From TrEMBL:
Single GO MF annotation: protein-macromolecule adaptor activity
InterPro entries linked: Nucleoporin_prot_Ndc1/Nup
Protein name: Nucleoporin protein Ndc1-Nup
Membrane topology: Multi-pass membrane protein
GO terms, biological process: mRNA transport; nuclear pore organization; protein transport; spindle pole body localization
Length: 385
């Protein structure tokens, strides 16, 4: 069973940054030219390992983006795999000349071992009264320290965080009663008057904050932070796309053995699929269209002022609610723009990479076979190359 690859680390980022420097260097750079020549050797071992690791990394990030930051895939439990491996059907037919329906040969019966419930180090001779007291204490400790049976597994058990919240006592701290209870126990000390005033003021402020609650901006989810969780390693993705596309373009003149050509369709298909998902996520983050033109909004604002003057306090309250709603819409638009900018970092790198390959190869890409959807997207890049 193959283990999943480790997630990208800072060393992955540094490695791809160095590779990007070598891949994007001009042909006049002798060090970069030699490194690319070693990657395009006749066996293609270096290039094969590099492109495989890069596509796997992009595939993991693509899966995270598709699931919108949710955890992707679950590893099979060890107990399930062990029980499947230990079942009789898993060993059927493994011996030479045996059939799956053959009965296993009889084996020697081994009695099952159970843990002893007594002290094996106890002396066999009659113990003294003090030793008997010690033995009784040990028995009590052993009975108390015996492991409790595991709770029954429920099919629809609530998540652990909900269980913890249910059993966690809800304690509301109030500073003033706490100070009134603690200060009499403190010995009388000469305290300046301004210290007492400061303590009383701090208590009043904390109580007022507790009654009002936290500001909405502190508790409301921000779309920019949420979108950053959709592409958590976007810097590494940008570097990987640059490495793959620059080396693919350099292979047109430096790859004498054609080791890169077999992977060009896979690279372009992966980049275009990733780009399509980024564009889909960006389209979902567009703000809602305006329900009415600006002229009508100005007329309604004027009517609101008239209504405010006529109705007095009620009109003023309605005007404040409308102003608060406009402020919320403005903040939401700012957060959506921040989220599109976060996704745009990866989207721009993917567009530049595909455009770089199409500009370099041009009509030579017609020699490769692509899926219809990939070919249609490439045609658009070729027309504007």
């Amino acid at each position: 069973m193959t283990t999943p690859p480790p997630p990208p680390t800072i060393y992955t980022h540094l490695a791809y940054a160095e590779l990007l420097h070598l891949a994007a260097a001009p042909a006049s750079d002798a060090v970069a030219l030699k490194a690319r020549a070693e990657a395009f050797d006749v066996e293609g071992a270096v290039w094969g390992r590099l492109v495989r690791e890069a596509l796997i990394l992009l595939g993991r990030e693509y899966a995270v983006l598709v699931s919108r930051g949710a955890p992707v895939g679950a590893t099979p439990s060890i107990s399930a795999s062990a029980s499947a491996a230990a079942s009789p059907s898993a060993f059927a037919g493994m011996g030479t000349g045996s059939t799956p329906n053959a009965s296993p040969s009889p084996s020697v019966l081994v009695p099952t071992l159970t843990p002893l419930k007594k002290n094996i180090f106890a002396p066999k001779t009659p113990a003294s009264p003090g030793a008997r007291v010690g033995t009784a204490i040990e028995g009590l400790i052993a009975a108390t320290a015996s492991p409790a049976p595991p709770p029954p597994a429920h099919a629809h058990a609530p998540p652990k965080h909900e269980q913890l919240q249910k059993h966690t006592p809800q304690v509301k701290w109030q500073l003033r009663p706490l100070l009134e209870a603690v200060l009499p126990m403190v010995p009388a000390l000469p305290v300046p008057g301004w210290v007492k005033v400061a303590l009383e003021s701090a208590g009043e402020v904390l109580e007022a904050v507790g009654r009002a609650g936290l500001p909405a901006a502190w508790t409301r989810k921000r779309k920019g932070r949420e979108a950053a969780g959709w592409v958590p390693r976007r810097e590494v993705c940008v570097e990987v796309v640059g490495v793959l596309t620059h080396l693919t373009c350099a292979s047109l003149t430096e790859d004498r053995f054609g080791v890169v050509q077999r992977d060009i369709p896979r690279i372009l298909e992966a980049l275009l699929a990733f780009l399509a998902e980024v564009e889909t996520a960006q389209a979902a983050l567009r703000p809602k269209p305006a329900e009415m033109p600006e002229a009508e909004k100005e007329v309604l604002a004027f009517l609101g002022e008239v209504e405010k003057k006529m109705e007095g306090e009620e009109g003023q309250k309605k005007a404040e609610e409308r102003a608060l709603q406009k402020e919320r819409e403005r903040e939401e638009a700012i957060h959506l723009e921040e989220a599109r900018t976060v996704l745009g970092e990866v989207g721009d790198a993917l567009k530049d990479g595909v455009a770089r390959i199409t500009r370099t190869f041009g009509d030579k890409l017609r020699a490769f076979r692509f899926p219809p959807r990939t070919a249609a997207r490439l045609q658009g890049f070729l027309e504007y190359a």
